[in-house]
Write a structure and sequence with these properties.
Helices cover 36% and strands 16% of the residues. It has 400 residues and is of the alpha/beta class. It has two domains: 175 residues, 3-Layer(aba) Sandwich (Rossmann fold); 195 residues, Phosphoglycerate kinase, N-terminal domain (Rossmann fold, 3-Layer(aba) Sandwich). Helix 8 links the parallel strand 8 and strand 9. Helix 9 packs across helix 10. The protein is elongated, with a radius of gyration of 23 Å.
Length: 400
């Protein structure tokens, strides 16, 4: 498969004195006072921004924030992000309240080499999410080269991720996009073995395609989260009041038959009468879940067993928490997986966390820096693991 071109493939002549239009993913959480509560995605884009600025390009940034549905919404303005970015860069960052049009083009042309300008939320524009070609052409007028560093939005065929690349070349990946594709791509194409996948989360329906795609490639697949209960029901086990997807039980049976010994379900479960009664939480074997209780986490025996499997692996991909990790003590299984992966990384295992809740759990445990790679895109990484083509990646130039 052809490699996608990245900013490191661009010559000095293509950057010095030119306008680099960079699609970043600054879709960050803000509190009621519009203060950024997690700047991970902003910090992840800094290497690309600095590299372009140091090579003499004027850096123009595009991003979405929230779901304003094609019209300006004050709480979704990127103005607070521009201020925070300036602090992280220790240099001024310009902010434009307009995203396209004559004024925006004038600002980009007036921007000195090495300076940074953030344009207002792309989702304030009505044609963004429909990938309107007229809007895409207007966005293309803002730069001389297009850089997509927004892996978290790469599964969306929007005007600022896909359409703009039809009008503006070269179109290349930034460092973050390149790193995401390198880690996820290499894990799928040529993993060091044993290769173990850990899949959790509430619903089997959201992970069916990932399970089907990964099963033939992995040496072991460890299941956690509420979706384990749908598998339990497929095995004829009682699940009490646990979350289950009745319409997916047949599919779970088929997966169990196909997977054989490669697919491992939790040996025990942490149960309680309800999520609001943590003091009554206790562990039971998987075939003894009380009729009046529900599973909210994997049990301690499972956590230990999964940790041993992780310790012997050379490549581990994790997507989805093992339980309701936001509510102690039902976070124990997820934390155990995060710690086991951190320890495995220390011993040379390639560990990849597939964004979303898994990334949030790793951050909550303070273990981000001890993973080989933590994806910034939950939905995008999931679709990539499913074997789908990401439109934002497909739109970029190939290097043969």
């Amino acid at each position: 498969m052809a490699r996608k071109a990245s900013i490191r493939d661009l010559s000095d002549a293509q950057l010095k004195g030119k306008r680099a239009l960079v699609r970043v993913d600054f879709n960050v959480p803000l509190d009621a006072d519009l203060r950024i509560t997690d700047d991970t995605r902003i910090r992840a884009a800094l290497p690309t921004i600095r590299f372009l600025a140091e090579r003499g390009a004027s850096v123009i940034l595009l991003s979405h924030l929230g779901r304003p549905k094609g019209k300006p919404v004050a709480k979704d303005s990127l103005a607070p992000v521009a201020r925070h970015l300036a602090e992280l860069l220790s240099s001024p960052v310009g902010f434009s309240q307009t995203t396209v049009g004559d004024e925006a083009v004038r600002l980009t042309r007036a921007l000195p080499p090495g300076d940074v300008l953030l344009l207002e939320n792309t989702r304030f524009l009505s044609g963004e999410e429909s990938n309107d070609p007229t809007l895409a052409a207007e966005l293309a007028a803002l730069g001389d080269v297009f850089v997509n560093d927004a892996f978290g939005a790469a599964h969306r065929a929007h005007a600022s991720t896909v359409g703009v690349a039809q009008f503006l070349r070269p179109a290349v990946a930034g460092f973050l996009m390149e790193k995401e594709l390198e880690y996820l791509g290499r894990a799928l194409a040529e993993p060091r073995r044993p290769f173990v996948a850990i899949l959790g989360g509430a619903k089997i329906s959201g992970k069916i395609d990932v399970i089907a795609q990964l099963l033939p490639k992995v040496d072991g697949m460890l299941i956690g989260g509420a979706m384990a209960c749908t598998f339990y029901q497929a095995m004829g086990l009682g699940i009490g009041k646990s979350l289950v997807e009745p319409d997916r039980v047949g599919m779970a049976k088929d997966l169990l038959a196909t997977a054989g010994a490669r697919l491992t379900l939790p040996h025990d479960a942490m149960v309680a009468p309800s999520i609001d009664q943590p003091a009554r939480a206790h562990a039971v074997p998987r075939d003894r879940i009380p009729a009046t209780e529900a599973m909210y986490d994997i049990g301690p025996r499972t956590a230990e067993s999964y940790a041993r499997a992780i310790a012997t692996a050379k490549t581990v991909i994790w997507n989805g928490p093992m339980g309701v990790f936001e509510s102690p003590p039902f976070d124990a299984g997820t934390i155990a997986i995060a710690r086991a992966m951190a320890a495995a990384t220390d011993h040379g295992t390639t560990t990849i966390v597939g964004g979303g809740d898994s990334a949030a759990a790793v951050a909550q445990a303070g273990l981000e820096s001890r993973m080989s790679h933590v994806s910034t895109g939950g939905g995008a990484s999931l679709e990539y693991l499913e074997g789908k083509t990401l439109p934002g990646v497909a739109a970029l130039d190939d290097v043969s």
